[in-house]
Amino acid sequence: MKSYPMLDFKKFTLDNGLRVIYHEDRSTPLVCMNILYDVGARDEDADRTGFAHLFEHLMFGGSVHIPSYDEPLQRVGGENNAFTSNDITNYYLTVPTANLETAFWLESDRMLSLAFSEKSFEVQRNVVIEEFKQRYLNQPYGDIWLLIRPMVYKTHPYLWDTIGKEISHIAEAKMEDVKAFFKKFYCPNNAIMVLAGNASLEQVQHLSEKWFGPIPKGPDNKRNLPVEPEQKEFRSLTVERDVPFNSIYKTYHMCSRKDKEFYTVDLLSDILSDGNSSRLYNELVMNKKMFSELNAYADDSMDKGMFVVSGKVQNGISLEAAEQAIETELEKLKNEKVEEKELKKVQNKVEATLEFSEMNIMNKALNFAVAELLGDANSVNKESEKYLAVTTEQVKEQANKIFRKENCSTLYYLAKK
Amino acid sequence: MSMIIDRKISPQINDITKAEIIRASETKLKNGIPVYYINAGTQDLVKIELLFPAGMWQQSSPLVGSAASAMLQQGTSKKSSKEIAEMVDYYGAFLDTSITQDFATVGIYSLNKHLASVLPVVEELISDSVFSQNEWDVYLGNKKQSFIVNNQKMSFVSQKKFSELLFGNNHPYGHNVSEKDYEQLKKEEAYGFYKRAYTSTDTVIVASGNVTDVTLKLIEKHFGGLTPTLSKGEGAPLPSVSGVKGGVHYIEKKDALQSAIRMGKMLFTKSHPDYHAMLVLNTIFGGYFGSRLMANIREDKGYTYGIGSGMVSFSHGGYFTISTEVGTEVTKDAVKEIYFELNKLQTEKVSDSELSLVRNYMLGTFLRSIDGPFALADRFKGIHFSGLDYDYYERYVETIHTISPERLMELANKYWKKEEVIELVVGKK
């Protein structure tokens, strides 16, 4: 069982619904402020995708009382960034303790209201279009998620990537859409704020009330997303691209981050492909030499996610043989329980990874924010325990549940001859 | 509770308290290998790195250093690659073997409770790796494949070509790796290199985290018995730099949606007296999110997802570089704007307001860069391999506080002469 000290925290909620979590760490001269907005690409309209991510860019284009977000933060020695996923949009900064109030000033003003500058809107649309090209179109294998998602999901909005379905959705975005999006999602009751680092509880309470307290509460967002129906038949897609090697992506539906089975499924992916002692690497890369790279990956999404096994096939190996070899490995996990020692190995690794991640105030702050979103900030202290409780029977059970042909969508990504 | 606040007025800006850097302590193993250690942090874990003179600088031919480093994880006379990986993984540890331009690292990250179990593996792979044929074939084949994939990425191609333009193809920092180098790479050569370089007297150990007497005793136990052989001065004579001076260079990629642009020129290493001042100038120009390049080329024009510049310093040479990827249709305009910003710093003094912002930003960044044991270990390595002492950081903070706009303009003129700037475009003009 976990023998490490718990991460202490205090939680309070402002009258406007903003949840605040405070974690003290006096070993650093900095404080991290992490604000998670409960909105992601899954909350977009199907004909206006890429919006949550575009919006993240606009959050840096000045707020109602402060023309520039970055400049004042840099002026006090701060640094910041943000990311958007299918589930959430997360903003984080670190600032030297002496200038903590500047962080409250900046973040509260952009939660209150943005400047909605036309110039910033124009420019950020272009920036995001360049990002689309740089990361998804102008890279070998860059477009795989744009192909896989709509094959795996037919109704749930995970069917598009955070960057959006296509460039035109971004190019055609309108200012009125931006304003409506802000009103709906960027309000205190839709956010979780974490302060982690060298600050006192009194300071955090006082500054939270002072700067965030006056922001009016927004609408209640009841999320009502379509549920993805169970997949009943094998799906596949074959594309040819100008890449050097054939590759294969086998994607299966799995549970969500919120389900208790998540920990088992996560360990299942580790057994398959975490490190050089993993099954796929040893059998198919090292021994049979069928793949140059082979990975298994379990989503940690809030709704039911994807379990992906992906590999680059060696020249001279047929795609059929390569696929068959992957399936053989997956079958083994369905038919035989893994050894206790093999399970213990991946559990130990997760335990260490969690411990290493707690060295850093930004990691800790994000972990608290996500845990609170999932329903309980204190669950950061129970993660290790949940992984350690997984049994070899449960691993086998999940393998049988997930690795079924009718639950699978396969992308064959071929090198143009 | 509601207070009247004026949101237009920023809270008071406080000076960033003097950053206290925790220095490494030094001890020596009985074989003479120095151990530098930093006891800091809140978690009961440790990182131990063994640093060998086995990087690109020392390697006898291209790719030999990285191949030797990778093969360390591929089996000893007693354990297969799988058994090594299994032992490391079982104890939840992370093993990292990698190289830089100037040295090779064998690093282990471990919870203290498992350290005694994982260090024997590290000892074994340093002293008894065998480079068996099967593992070598797999390594080389896969490495070549991933090289071929990377070679389709414009940022990768432009980085390689740019290093070649700076240092010359025969220089260890400048060699432009091609598929042919993979074909010519010999196992025997990599093994010979491993035997020489991984037992050098120049080996250094750096430990950081919760480093206790127990940790130091374990380090002595496992690495105090390595027998260093003299290797100083071995190898070829110092390579000469044969890069180009300025000029426009172009690699065409049909069907490109974006062009990768790299510009810059040879400068100097960290030990040069103007290095710190150039870091300030570089920050203003392209070294942070609010830099001139970002403000103009991303935030005003929207040409790119990102643009930046940097000062790169290896042990035996350093350069200044600008890099970005832009839509092909604006390639020329982007290059023009980069020169515009260079010229502006040569002809107009930086305002006090901008300079004070950059001073504070850099001080904050410095504070972040010494936060936590692993960061502190990196700062130690940052000076040790350039033959510098901790006063390097004191002088750095001093320069940030005191540099003047006049001095910055003088430096921009001295080191950024347009005719000396190398301009490389990969993609479409």
Structure, explained:
- The complex is a heterodimer of chains A (417) and B (429).
- With 417 residues, chain A is α+β, with helices and mostly antiparallel strands.
- Chain A is built from 15 helices and 11 strands.
- Chain A has helices at 51-58, 70-75, 100-112, 118-137, 144-152, 167-171, 175-185, 201-212, 262-273, 279-287, 319-335, 340-357, 361-373, 383-388, 392-402, and strands spanning 10-13, 19-24, 30-37, 79-84, 89-96, 191-197, 235-241, 247-253, 291-298, 306-313, 408-415.
- In chain A, the strands form 2 sheets. Chain A has a 6-stranded mixed beta sheet, with helices on both faces. Chain A has a 5-stranded mixed beta sheet with strand order 7-11-8-10-9, with helices on both faces.
- In chain A, 51% of the residues are buried.
- Chain B has 429 residues and is of the alpha+beta class.
- Chain B folds into 2 domains: 25-223, Cytochrome Bc1 Complex, Chain A, domain 1; 247-427, Cytochrome Bc1 Complex, Chain A, domain 1 (2-Layer Sandwich).
- Helices cover 43% and strands 19% of the residues of chain B.
- Chain B has 15 helices and 11 strands.
- A 6-stranded mixed beta sheet of chain B has the order 1-2-6-3-5-4, with helices on both faces.
- In chain B, a hairpin with a 4-residue loop joins strand 4 and strand 5 (104-111).
- In chain B, helix 1 packs across helix 7, helix 10 (292-300) runs antiparallel to helix 11 and helix 11 (331-347) packs across helix 15.
- The termini of chain B are far apart.
- At the A-B interface, helix 2, strand 5, helix 3, helix 4 and helix 8 of A face helix 2, strand 5, helix 4, helix 10 and strand 10 of B.
Keywords for this structure?
heterodimer; A: 417 residues; alpha+beta; 6-stranded mixed β-sheet; B: 429 residues; Cytochrome Bc1 Complex, Chain A, domain 1; 5-stranded mixed β-sheet
